[in-house]
Here is the input.
Amino acid sequence: MLDVALLGTGGMMPLPNRFLTAFAVRQNGRILLIDCGEGTQVTQKMLGWGFKTVDVICLTHFHADHAAGIPGFLLSMANSDKGDPLTIIGPVGTEYIVKSLLVIAKDLPFEINFVELPYEKKTYHINQGGFSIGALPVSHGVPCFAYSVSLARIGKFNADAAKSLGLPVRFWGILQRGENVSYEGLEYTPDMVLGASRAGLKVTYCTDSRPIPSISDFAQNSDLFVCEGLYGDPALSAKAAEHRHMTYKEAANIAKRANVSEMWLTHYSPSVTNPKEFLGVARDIFPNTHTGFDRKTATLKFSEDE
Ligand SMILES: [Zn+2]
Ligand SMILES: [Zn+2]
Here is the structure.
């Protein structure tokens, strides 16, 4: 199970009723945050998920609307008595940018580890803080990454197979967790009692970028795809391209090609006062499109079948 929350949905600058785009994923009570524009600490406080269990922050790129909230957010984490380490993932230069911002937020009571991703044509897989994270370089004029968070699901436990092994019941749970068991001189492995692995959960977040083909491969079969829609109005598509962003229509085409289950739009231009106005443009292409709004949440669950 993954809980997700869109903390803000604005691009460029925060508005009185719209925070800058940021997205949180919670798994077993631990939180991964993607992007941290100015004011992210306020909307996180309003959401009520707390700061103490934020273990990972992924930065898409270094534009202020995605990174300028770091000092305040980390000070809120310090005030929550966080003591265990924080990992910050982002393009090369993340450590320099974050440490520069933290000149005004010194003496944090937790350690910060940095993972810097070279901006190369490859997809990264990072296991950090219990999260399985993917990162894809996208096209925004500056090094920028889309991120995915996946939760694998092991195969169904086969009690008959476990019984036929003659292994006492007290060991079954260990195998079910994917660990080996040694008993009376024999080694038992999870594949002896587990069926084929089942579809897990995947959520993908992409902003800011032009709609390059690799995004749909990266987001393939996501349960939730959160994607920027700077403008809904198709008449503004040239303007979106000029600033290395994308429109609702372009986002919907990616969602369709990626065969995702659901898409939420985010990162609206401040000029977009009613995000729903052009929702139909996206839904004509990808029907299960929804306009994101600040603190829109969902719980993604494994499907009931098998
Ligand atoms: Zn932006
Ligand atoms: Zn940007």
User: Anything to note?
Assistant: Residues 140 and 209 are 5 Å apart (CA to CA). The mean pLDDT is 95. The longest strand covers residues 145-153. Residues 2-154+197-300 form a domain with the Metallo-beta-lactamase; Chain A fold (CATH 3.60.15.10).
